[in-house]
Amino acid sequence: MITLTPRLQAVADYVPSHCRFADVGTDHAYLPVWLIQHGIIRSAVASDLRQGPLDRARATARQYGCTERFDFRLSDGLDAFAPHEADCIAVAGMGGEAIRSILSAAAWTKEHTRLILQPQTNVPELRLWLTQSGYHIREDRIIREENRWYTVLLAEGGGDDTVWTPGTLLTGNPARWSAGDDRKGHLRHLLEKLDRQLGGLTKAAEPDQERQIKLSRARQELTAMLEGENTKCQP
Questions:
Q1: What element of type H or E holds 23?
Q2: What is the reported pTM?
Q3: pLDDT per residue over 118-129, tens digit each?
Q4: List of residues 6+ apart from 147 with CB closer than 8 A
């Protein structure tokens, strides 16, 4: 049996039983093989932009005896998919810009489709784009794997009334935070990162004042959030 990393396990946790599942950018296909092994899905479409990762996906499926349950597809994002061919789509391990490009080219994902997104970069920009482009973020989860923090977004089509601020773009809308996440640890991590960025701006010969103001505001917001999390833990 395959054992998933915490990052991929967080994605797997959002996959509903018996859905028509697609793993876009599948690489080794660990996620869909795990889902098949545990009886969550009966079959999967595993796609990738490049032949090498798709060959690795085939090798994994062959190793675990479930090749016949796969449709392996060479595809640039969802280009090789018919609209609504999948009703649950995972896009994990890509940059936020790549995820945005994939969804921009597949407007049908706004209708009756569950999206499980795990961006590696540009997370604040992806959050903003989703809510401005006809998607609703249902849940915003953070996972720590070794020394890195990862975000997993559960999204679907629909209006999202989130009013974003510099702070919530970094943390996600607190109303959508997933229960049980180590929010205090993540907030401390973000605050340390903001302090480094602010320190760099202070030392610059010509500091970007607009960016400095935005980062300072974000730091104030995150400090208040951390104080609120600490208060929750007090008897």
A1: strand 21-24
A2: 0.94
A3: 999 999 999 999
A4: none
